[in-house]
Write a structure and sequence with these properties.
Number of strands: 3
Structural class: alpha+beta
Number of helices: 4
Helix content: 40-55%
Order of helices and strands: EHHEEHH
Radius of gyration: 18 Å
Distance between the termini: 57 Å
C-alpha cells in the first residue's frame, strides 16, 4: 500500500499514487518552488535529462504525485553560508 501513503505537507485528498498531467505537474512543482513550464517538462523528458519520473499511458505522459514530490524535494540544497562569510571566517583565523 505504498501508493496510498500520504505526505504530511499535502492535502488529505492527495494520494502519492495520483497521476498528474504535465500541466498539473507543473503547478504541483510550483508548490515546492520548482518552477517548470509543461513545455520544459516535455523537453527534459524527450532529451533524457534528469527530470521528474513519468509514465506514459497510451502515449500521454503522467507524473505520479509521490514521485514528483520526492524529485522536487531532491532539487533543494542544504543551507550554505555566503562566500563573504566564509572569507571573513578564514581572515579571522589568520
Amino acid at each position: 500500500m505504498t501508493g496510498l501513503r500520504r505526505h504530511p505537507m499535502v492535502d488529505a485528498e492527495e494520494l502519492d499514487a495520483d497521476l498528474l498531467t504535465r500541466t498539473e505537474a507543473s503547478a504541483y512543482l510550483a508548490r515546492y518552488n520548482v518552477r517548470m513550464k509543461p513545455a520544459t517538462l516535455a523537453r527534459i523528458w524527450s532529451v533524457g535529462q534528469d527530470g521528474p519520473p513519468c509514465q506514459h499511458i497510451r502515449r500521454k505522459p503522467f507524473y505520479p504525485r509521490g514521485e514528483l514530490r520526492a524529485w522536487a524535494l531532491r532539487q533543494r540544497t542544504a543551507l550554505r553560508p555566503s562566500r563573504t562569510s566564509i572569507v571573513l571566517v578564514q581572515a579571522e583565523e589568520l
